[in-house]
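Lab channel / #folding
Pinned by the channel admin:
"Please post every new chain as: sequence first, then the structure tokens as a reply. Keep commentary short and put observations after the output so the thread stays searchable."

First post following the new format, from NK:
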Amino acid sequence: MNVSIIPIEPAMAEVAAALHAAVGFHEPWDARSFAELLGIEGTAGHLAMAGDEPVGLILWRVAADEAEILTVCTLPKRRRAGAGRMLMEAAITAVAAAGARRLLLEVAVDNTAAIGLYREFHFTDAGRRRGYYRTHGGPVDALILSKDV
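Reply from TO:
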């Protein structure tokens, strides 16, 4: 898959919301949420594009010397083809350039594919939030992962 990474602009909120809904999140974010987040200073993101098709996205926020991945996703039919890795690389580069020294994220404990990707980028355990995610099967704990950048 030939993928390019482009910045998400607030005008792309509808595209981001449609992608977020298509990946199967129990509570996907709507376009208004994306537009509002992207309007907050320090918040930015990227889309992974396969030609004209958005196949993944990542959104982060930088505050002082710390950054947080707010959401990252890839379309199910496009997983394991490198888009997620490219999005993570782009986000890590961007938050470091913005002055962040530490990057945090939360991931469902049962999302082994995502945890594997984050471990490849040397994220380590920083905590756990009990019952943080609401899913169709009930509450799921979140791992809090951290990485120096």
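NK: The mean pLDDT is 93.
TO: also worth noting, The radius of gyration is 14 Å.
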